[in-house]
Specification:
Order of helices and strands: HEEEEEEHEEEH
Helix content: 10-25%
Distance between the termini: 50 Å
Shape: extended
Strand order of the largest sheet: 3-4-2-1-7-8-9-6-5
């Protein structure tokens, strides 16, 4: 079964297919879904997404290559002083360490109630996930515009590193008593193996 059957059918039928980005912030108290359009978007999986229009932006949404962990950034600009103050106060309990996901949503079915708009095709598809690490709060001195930027690191960073573990027999025995998986690790440190051996 194809990933996007409705989208593919619309494109093959000569219809116009458009794409929008959706961002889901898994905040502690109240998770939030946002998209880069206007108004409230209801996707086919019955989730609601609030439109930010040009007030929101993101960068660094790319695939991690060669073990690198690209930093992603999500910016909300044009906010007032109260929102900036609350963002500073609530960053640690609400945002730090939480997951943010970026998804794409295809559109292509004309909406008879709103001729300039289109309805979603298929379900949203996730393309990126990050863990929120920090926040930057800025106020432009020239025009007074305020912005909050949340930065995150890919979930795949340090994925190959074991959590709080060492490749030793003692550590393995502590975790899994009787396991012999690391019994000979110490004996092969700095050992030269000739392969193939003819």
């Amino acid at each position: 079964m194809a990933l996007f059957p409705e989208t593919i059918a619309m494109a093959l039928g000569g219809g116009k297919v458009e794409c929008a980005e959706l961002v889901h912030f898994d905040f502690t108290t109240q998770p939030m879904g946002l998209w880069n359009g206007g108004g409230i978007l209801r996707t086919n999986d019955a989730r609601l997404w609030s439109g930010l229009g040009t007030l929101g932006s993101m960068s660094g949404i790319e695939q991690a290559v060669n073990g690198e962990a690209p930093e992603s950034a999500f910016t909300l600009s044009g906010i007032d002083a109260d929102v900036l103050r609350l963002s500073r106060q609530e960053f640690e309990p609400e945002c730090k360490g939480r997951i943010v996901r970026v998804l794409i949503q295809f559109f292509g079915i004309d909406d008879p109630a709103d001729p300039g708009n289109q309805r979603p095709l298929d379900n949203p598809f996730p393309i990126h996930a990050s863990r929120i690490l920090g926040a930057t709060f800025t106020v432009d001195q020239e025009n007074g515009e305020r912005a909050v930027t949340l930065s995150g690191e890919s979930l795949f960073s340090l994925r190959s590193r074991p959590k709080y573990a060492m490749y030793t027999d003692r550590d393995q025995q502590r975790r899994f008593p009787g396991d012999k998986g690391f019994e000979f690790v110490q004996a092969i440190v700095n050992k030269v193996l000739t392969w193939p051996d003819y």
